[in-house]
Amino acid sequence: MKVLINFIPGIARLFAAIVPILLLFFYTKTASLEQVGLVGYFISLITILGVLTDFGLPEAAQRFIPQSNNKKETIGQILFTEIIVVVLGMLLFTVSDVISDGEISKGYFAMLLIVFFFSISNVVLVIFNGLNYKNRLTAYFFASAVTFFAISAITFLFFDFSAVNSFFIGRLISWVIFTILPLVDLYRLNLLAFSFNIPKKFLKFAFNIFTASFAYVLFTQWDSIVVTQLGSAKENGIYKPVEFLASLPLALRVILETKLLPEFSEIEGKGDFLTLKNKTLFYTKALSALSIIVTIIAIPFTHFGLSIFYNTEIADEGSLIFVLTLIGTFLYILSIPATTALQALNKEHKIRNAATVQSAIFLIFATILFIPLGTVFLPILLVITCGGYFAYTFASVLSIFTEKLK
């Protein structure tokens, strides 16, 4: 029971992560595939922009706050860094959209800019996990997710909002509310501060995690950007819902990191490296068994499941995409215990290096080969994705068990 309770904050973050999939379910029933494709495009774009604004700070909060003797100062360092990153990110986004003549924002520049700013909600909420205030973290993530889903669904179903507009309204209102309320909570706890003195160790950790996370999110989201920009929103309307559903197990990353990073950091602080390796091995084996079982069960029911969850057109066009994406997803999940342990051991540069190489190769293949081949290239692209995930996982696990720890 205690183990299950420890996973509850991560489950709350999982629920928040799957809300876009639930919304796509609504949209595919009545909205056009073009609208569904645009929603999928903006989900990918906001995910990429969100990693820019996070800048590795959620992981830094879970890594450094538990070990800090002055938690208020550490929180101040995190919040100050986040504000600087958000402002710089908004400027970069503005310049990029102007250069592309609005092709990035597709007419939703102002809304994206506001959403961009309030994506700081994620960093603010994760601070409570670093403080071990798990009930607060759980309540905030659940409430934020429910608000996002409810407002988006209600405005779409009953107020004649388009799929894209309802998605943006729900996302924006939920992030505004759950940026302000947690900050007020920190103030009441006398933990709200802004510190200009940022330790080099803190920045190095955050930057390395940011680089790895940004490479990872490009690896998982760039295909949707390419399909929309070089193909069409309708093609992405088929591709993205299927990919989202098959990628749902990736939410385990949030659950596991929410539980394991503070736990592994505490073990590392005690110098008990044998326990750290044993726990990493245990979770890797457990995830391997889970991955094999779920994949074997899911494959025979792919077409039927897609036709029920979405519609027949998406099922006909997307079954192969689903299977290949699911395999790649589980190959990546196997790396999570090892990469979390590397973060706790201050070896995050190894994650950064592996993720950067993997992402760079993928971006080159995805962009260059899609131009002449179009959506015919998607299955080949997904096979390349599976290979990239396997290489990343193998390198991560190998790093833990060849690391010379004293």
UniProtKB/TrEMBL annotation:
Compartments where located: Cell membrane
TM region positions: 7-27, 39-57, 78-96, 108-128, 140-159, 165-184, 282-301, 321-342, 354-374, 380-401
Keywords per UniProt: Cell membrane, Membrane, Transmembrane, Transmembrane helix
Membrane topology: Multi-pass membrane protein
GO CC field: plasma membrane
Xref: Pfam families: Polysacc_synt
Protein name: Oligosaccharide flippase family protein
